[in-house]
């Protein structure tokens, strides 16, 4: 018995010491999958996490818009009337076009101070082309926009190739293009623009489907259908690639929410005249630009430059080309904004692009949620911020308040938006998300 024990012990001693077996690797799980698996509770938890991390998105401006509407409605019951909502939806388009171009520039962390002067110059050139020289309205419209794009590209070249700071280049443009506008208009100081062609399309008396009550509901239906089709196409593409995708229940919920908002807006606007054509064109521009920024390589390059220029350069991005393209886009939308504003009065005047036009355009982009520090924002900021500013303007007009009050309130709202952005970025850095 002892011999057997000795033999067994010796065999055990001959074995190499056992090594600790590492635990099997745990596959990383996309947090979006966990959120969606938990249903409504998961989305609530994710929303709370975003708030604590400073990822506020469009929430502050939406809350501000609701508060502004509630205050003015309590002061004057006509504020939320159909007529007033039609006015707001119409006049938001001109400044909103300027703001779209500024969103692109702000995403780079830069600024364009020339957009208002460019818009005034373009309206003057358009008036000269059509009124003085009898050019076809649509051809003049296209030529005017191309000139705006060219002016923006010139700013971009000085900034990207020569190295002049964007602030200085566009400040020079602010002065220079305004002077050229004064020279173009000459001693008369104003030129009338015929109410036809594109100017009639964007005018105050022009509505989608010619005031047909079905027009607004058709737009709402198209918007919901586009959301459903786009979401299901993306769901199928992501499912096929084996990456996280939105569940069908979430897609349906988003479509239902959009339908509620869309049909309520359609109902309100239809009580007076319907949806202004200017607003329709503005919304189409927003959709196209949103697609460009979120779904194309160019859009990703713009966000990359706003995050870090040096990292973008090392990643092989042509920094100069993207910068020039962005300023060209800003110039093009400045031209469109100038034509929208000219269509409101059917004239090109010395006051075009002057006054607070530039400040309101910048404020619309920033108040809507685009960061002044670059790398964060969406073109829908132009709509949200524009609604805030136009609501303040219209509300104060209803209350017969002085313009000085409007300036002070708009300035306060702009400061609040920048403070929220700064605090949000600081919170994200603290939580390790910046």
From TrEMBL:
The keyword Transmembrane helix applies. The chain crosses the membrane at residues 56-72, 88-108, 115-132, 138-159, 166-186, 213-230, 251-269, 275-293, 321-343, 355-373, 380-399, 405-423. GO terms for cellular component: plasma membrane. It is found in: Cell membrane. Residues 1-24 are annotated as: Disordered. Pfam families: BPD_transp_2. GO terms for molecular function: transmembrane transporter activity. Its main location: membrane. This is Xylose transport system permease protein XylH. It comes from Actinacidiphila reveromycinica.
